[in-house]
Every structure is written in structure tokens, then in C-alpha cells.
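Sat 14:20. Reprocessing the chain from the morning session after the first attempt stalled halfway. Input below, unchanged.
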Amino acid sequence: MAVWSPLRAVKARVRNAYYRLKARNIVPAAHPGSGPPIVVGLLRTPIGMGEFARLNLAALRALGFPVGPFDVSHLFRRESVNVIKIDSEDSRAFEELGPLLLHVKPPEFDRTLSLLGRQKTAGRLLIGCWVWELERIPPSWRSALHQLHEVWAPSRFCAEAIRSETKKPVFVVPCPVRPYEGEAWDRRALKIPDETFVVLCTYDMRSSQARKNPIGAVRAFRRAFGDSPAAVLLVKVTDPEFRPDSFNELKSEIQTAANIRLLVERLSAEEMGALIAGVDAVLSLHRSEGIGLVPAQAMLAAKPVVATAWSGNMDFMDAESAALVPYELVPVRDPQGIYDGHDQVWAEPDLDAATDLLRRLGKDPTFRHQLGANALMKAQRSLSLDAFERGLSPTFLALARREGRNPAQDGVSKIPCPSADRES
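Finished this time. C-alpha cells:
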């Protein structure tokens, strides 16, 4: 992990100040033009915001919008994977004045607008597509709000957080999560018998270990099953080298438990879909979620999900479709410093309740299968292409060119992504 030296910090402040000054000249047009929409984002980057952009891009294409993609992965020196066709489409997309959908969080906003410049932004409907995981967005996001006409949020939780800081229109546009349609993962690869009850917990170290709370998941699982070989917990961790101290804390919690397996290799979208399809349940004792992509994918695979009953995931979960864990709101404490509390709160899940739910799922196949069936129906209603379409703003619909819906793609994203094991 790179050391954040004082010199690097000064350079970063100077660079950001430069981008702020350069982006200041970009202001929302009073009367935006029309044309094909453009999705700007980390389209070639295997992180949650990249997947968010890819899902929205695919959904708009499925609805008949001739969307132009514009990738900015290189701008932030992010890992880039050639997973979608982006070549001459970039330049052609800007020939008309269609809406610009900016899938970058405000800390990256000025740099993105600086890259685009007035030539590519003037006269367009500017839409921020944002995800946030606390009840109020940071004050530093306010400047980005001034440069937009409206904001799209993937959940009501995110929308309310953004509305707390602006009077501009904020629309809830559900994330059109794609169902996995391939073969399930073969348990024999990890020498797990078919009759074993397998639970999956997954998170990205860059998303904050405190927020994702895998340690709570490990504790609840151990309380429920002890060292019994009849149950196995898979803990999928992405980028453990990003915070080795946090990863060591997790390993210390697991210790020598033979029925808890750490998976640290990066998985493709197909591999992650196969893994979810091959387990019996997914466990998310998060303290907060903006969306909750992995639980959503699990529900679309008819898998029961044990999840904290708070934040963005509650848009597609209820007591009939998920094993909801009660919680207590507590002050935000994040040792990684990704989330600065400042009187903010998030959920502390009840581990005793989570333990009971896990134990019941492990012992009662009928309950497990019924909950999975309910999960599928709920996710199909809440995360469908139709739900996404209903959330689109009237202004966007009035200005974005549309060529007719492609029914062959309804509800399914046809764009592959490099990794689905990272969440927003």
C-alpha cells in the first residue's frame, strides 16, 4: 500500500484546486438541447461505481436509447479492462446535445468536468448519478450540485441523503441489476460436500471494512454453527492488500476455524454469478448500503439473504423476501477514514438475531427455499428494466433521443463487466 506522504498530499491539493478552477466555468444550461444521451463513468474499472454505470448504460440501450459511452478510467489511473466497445463512439456521441449522465462521485467531479471541458458539456442536460451510504452527503459535495440540472440516485436512501443538501430535482432510478444465467459454481473445487450449508459474505476492502462489517458476519456465523462441518462460511475479499491492517483484523477473527474460508482472488462477473448461484445463502451484516448489489444479485438467483434492515437495500427487501436483521443506530466510526462521522449514524446489526436467522436457514430447507422464491419475485419487481424506466426523469425523457425498445434485452444487461464482487 502506498504511503500518503505530506508532499503527495500537497500535490493532490494543488491538483484538485486546479481542476476546481477549470471546472468552475461549466454551468448548467438554461435550455438544454436534445439528442442521444451519453454515459460518463469508470466503464472499464472493476469497482461498484463502474458497475453502476455499466448497468445504467445497458438498461438505456435496452430501452432504445442510442447511448454513447465515455470512459474516464484513465483519468483516475484506475485499472482498465476492455469489456465494452468504446472507440469512435466517443467522438460521435458529442456531435449532438443529448443529456450527459455523470457516474462519478463529487470528489472526482471537477477532474471529470475538466476533462470534458465546455465543448462537451455546454448546452446539455447535466445529470449526476450518485451513490452514498450515509444519511447526509458530505458538505464537500455541494459545489458539484451547483454544476448539475438534476441527480439520479439508485435508492430512496441515497436520494434522501442528497435532497438534504439541495433543492434541485433528485430522482430515484433503481439500479437494473442483471440476473446470472450460467451454471452454478462447483463446490468440489473447495472440497465442500454437496449437503453442506454454504453461506457467502463478500466485500471490497476499498468500500470500508467497518461499513461492510465482515467481522460481524464471522461472529454471527460462529455463534450459529461453531466449528460444525455441516456449515461453511465463504468470505470473499477484494483488494486485501489495500488495507493489510484491516485484513489482518479479519484473519485474527477467523483464526483457525476450519469451516470459514477466505477467498481473495479477483473474480469475473461470470465467476461471481456462478459463486452466488452455488451457495445456499448470502449474509450482509452491513452498517449501511447505498444499493447492495451482491444481495440483489443473490435474490435474483432465488437465494435467501440475511441482511441488516437498514439503508439502500430496503428498496428491494421486506420481511417476506429477506431474513431481516434488526439494528440500533450508532455513531459512525470508520478506522479507514472513508466515512467521516460528524454526528452521522449507521446501523449496528443485532448479532443474536442474525445468529438465530442463520441457524434456522441451515436447519430448515423449506424455509430456505420459500424465502429464496419470495426473494426472486421481490427483486424482479424492484430491480427490473421497467422499474428503471419508471424512475427516469421527465426532462431526460423529453430531451433524450429514443429509437424504440429492444424487447430481447428486457431486464437483462448485455454488457459484461470485469468484476461483480465489488459493491456500491
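Residues 208 and 338 are 7 Å apart (CA to CA).
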